[in-house]
Structures are given as structure tokens and as C-alpha cells.
């Protein structure tokens, strides 16, 4: 549809809604003669009269009322388009999908994203919990807009950048003598029954190397796959301590467990992965920024 035709329909709708050419001109910011010219051009395009001229007024014909039903739909549709544009611009509508390793997806990401989504009921959010090895594949196959991994992605179709450095902390029973200390060292844990993350966890070899450098042989009594389970064992007296990511602390409210900085400090890099071929949406980028802010908040007491 040409711009001229749209302008004619706009003038027609304005006269139908406001009842006069003068008011229509004011609403359209044009002169009364300009509106009259647009109406005549629209009538010529239609091939039949749309208004009867009576006493200086335009009276709609029955045909005009029939046409008005359709032109209203046209502009209602245009309004919906612009409503959608505004919603997208304001990040109030759309879909976001994130793939992340368990330490983030269990507590921290829900804590970060829930307030954002509560204000945006038209946003649909999907969270996929995957191992760090599997996160890049989720992005590569377009099942996730972004991935958060402890491993950098090297595939040429992906872009990978350092996101946040996450500190490992010591989870202790609240009644433990070590809980009174400002920080816990590897030497403090000498001979104590520890809860360790599985050998396939990215932090495990780094933690083992720290104990080795400090001349401490860790006494691992329990081995688990996820940090939340380690905290549950600590809470229930299943071990003296566990070294876990600081991200876990944000979602833990069990009074039987306290968290203390671990020394020497261990930092784990979280990598942000997204497609090299597509630019992520403004909405998904805003969600990722909320996650970054929450990660930094969780990490700050131990940094």
C-alpha cells in the first residue's frame, strides 16, 4: 500500500471518528483543505461517495460505515505492530534461553532472573542445566541463546569470553570450631573428613593441586557430583567441610551451614558463550547482565 493511500485512509478515519474535517485536520496537524483533498482522493479510489455534504458538514454514507469497519482494523493492526515494537525495545516481550552448569542453574540464576521476569509476564524463559562440556553444544544447535560454562568454547561457530571469576569457598557446620575463623586454610582441614566434588568437576584438580602445594593430604570421605549435595552433607554432619563455588551461597538458607573464604584463594573462570553468526537479542543480553550482577553480588563477600 502506497504512502498516499495510507494518508487518505488516515484522513477518512479521522473524519469518521471526530465528526468534522476541522477536527480531523487538527488531529493530523494539517489544514482543513488538505483533509478535504485527501477525502476526495479516497472517494475517487473507492469509486463511490463516502460522505454527503449537508450544511457545511460531512455526513457518512452507509458505504462509508462499512469501509470504516475495515480501516479501523487496519490501524488497530498497525497499533499492535507498534505495541510489539515498543515491547521488544523495552525488553518486555520475547523468549530467552540459557544453558548453564548446575552450580549456577540450581539457585543463582533463579534468584537473578525471577524479579526481572515478574515485571515482564510476556517474556518466556528457558533454563537448561548441562555439564560445562555440553553447554557449548546447546548454543551451537540454537537451543540456547547464551551458555555459561567453566570451560572455554573453541568451536569456530561460537564466540567465547570471560564472564565472571567465581571464588571457591569453604562450607562448614555452623557449630564447627572453624566457623569462628574469618577464613579457612588448607592446613586447617588436615586430617578432617571432607566432602569433595566429583573428579570430573572442573574445580576438583585445582583444589587437589592447592592441597598438594600446601603439603596437606586431604581426607576425602564423601564424594558428590553437585555442590548442593555437598552442602546437604555438611548440614547433616556428614563431613567437616566442603569446598564449593561461591555461587551456591546465594541460595543457601540452612542455618546449620556457614561459608568462609578459603585460603589460598581459588578462582574459577565462568565463560560466556554465544553464536558467532547471530547477534543475541537485547532481551537475552539484559537477562545475562542480571545474572552477571547477581554472580558478582554472591562472590563479593569472599573476593
Describe the structure.
- The protein is α/β, with parallel strands linked by helices and 303 residues long.
- The protein folds into three domains: 3-89, Orthogonal Bundle (Arc Repressor Mutant, subunit A); 96-163 and 275-302, Periplasmic binding protein-like II (D-Maltodextrin-Binding Protein, domain 2); 164-268, Periplasmic binding protein-like II (D-Maltodextrin-Binding Protein, domain 2), CATH 3.40.190.10.
- Helix content is 42%, strand content 26%.
- It is built from nine helices and twelve strands.
- It has helices at residues 3-18, 21-28, 32-46, 62-89, 102-118, 135-140, 204-213, 227-235, 282-299, and strands at 51-54, 57-60, 93-100, 122-129, 146-149, 158-173, 184-185, 193-197, 219-224, 241-245, 257-263, 267-275.
- The strands form two sheets. Strands 3, 4, 5, 6, 7, 8, 9, 10, 11 and 12 form a ten-stranded mixed beta sheet that branches. A two-stranded antiparallel ribbon has the order 1-2.
- Helix 1 (3-18) packs across helix 4 (62-89) and helix 5 (102-118) packs across helix 9 (282-299).
- The longest helix is centred in the N-terminal third of the chain and has 28 residues, at 62-89.
- The model has no long low-confidence stretch (mean pLDDT 87).
Amino acid at each position: 500500500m502506497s504512502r498516499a493511500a495510507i494518508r487518505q485512509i488516515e484522513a477518512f478515519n479521522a473524519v469518521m471518528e471526530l465528526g468534522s474535517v476541522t477536527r480531523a485536520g487538527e488531529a493530523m496537524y494539517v489544514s482543513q483543505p488538505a483533509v478535504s483533498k485527501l477525502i476526495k482522493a479516497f472517494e475517487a479510489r473507492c469509486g463511490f461517495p463516502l460522505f454527503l455534504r449537508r450544511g457545511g458538514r460531512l455526513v457518512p454514507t452507509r458505504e462509508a460505515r462499512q469501509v470504516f469497519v475495515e480501516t479501523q482494523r487496519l490501524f488497530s493492526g498497525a497499533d499492535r505492530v507498534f505495541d510489539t515494537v515498543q515491547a521488544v525495545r523495552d525488553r518486555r516481550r520475547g523468549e530467552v534461553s540459557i544453558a548453564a552448569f548446575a552450580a549456577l542453574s540450581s539457585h543463582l540464576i533463579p534468584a537473578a532472573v525471577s524479579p526481572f521476569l515478574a515485571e515482564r509476564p510476556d517474556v518466556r524463559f528457558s533454563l537448561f542445566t548441562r555439564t560445562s562440556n555440553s553447554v557449548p553444544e546447546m548454543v551451537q544447535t540454537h537451543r540456547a541463546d547464551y551458555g555459561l560454562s567453566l570451560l572455554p568454547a573453541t568451536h569456530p561457530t561460537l564466540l567465547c569470553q570471560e564472564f565472571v571469576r567465581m571464588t571457591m569457598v569453604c562450607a562448614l557446620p555452623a557449630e564447627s570450631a572453624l566457623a569462628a575463623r574469618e577464613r579457612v586454610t588448607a592446613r586447617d582441614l588436615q586430617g578432617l573428613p571432607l566432602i569433595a566434588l566429583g573428579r570430573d568437576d572442573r574445580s576438583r584438580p585445582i583444589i587437589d593441586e592447592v592441597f598438594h602445594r600446601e603439603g596437606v593430604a586431604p581426607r576425602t570421605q564423601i564424594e558428590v557430583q553437585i555442590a548442593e549435595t555437598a552442602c546437604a552433607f555438611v548440614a547433616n554432619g556428614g563431613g567437616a567441610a566442603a569446598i564449593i563455588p561461591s555461587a551456591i551461597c546465594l541460595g543457601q538458607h540452612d542455618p546449620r551451614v556457614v561459608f568462609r573464604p578459603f585460603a589460598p584463594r581459588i578462582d574459577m573462570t565462568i565463560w560466556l558463550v554465544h553464536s558467532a553468526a547471530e547477534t543475541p537479542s537485547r532481551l537475552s543480553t539484559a537477562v545475562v547482565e542480571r545474572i552477571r550482577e547477581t554472580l558478582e553480588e554472591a562472590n563479593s563477600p569472599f573476593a
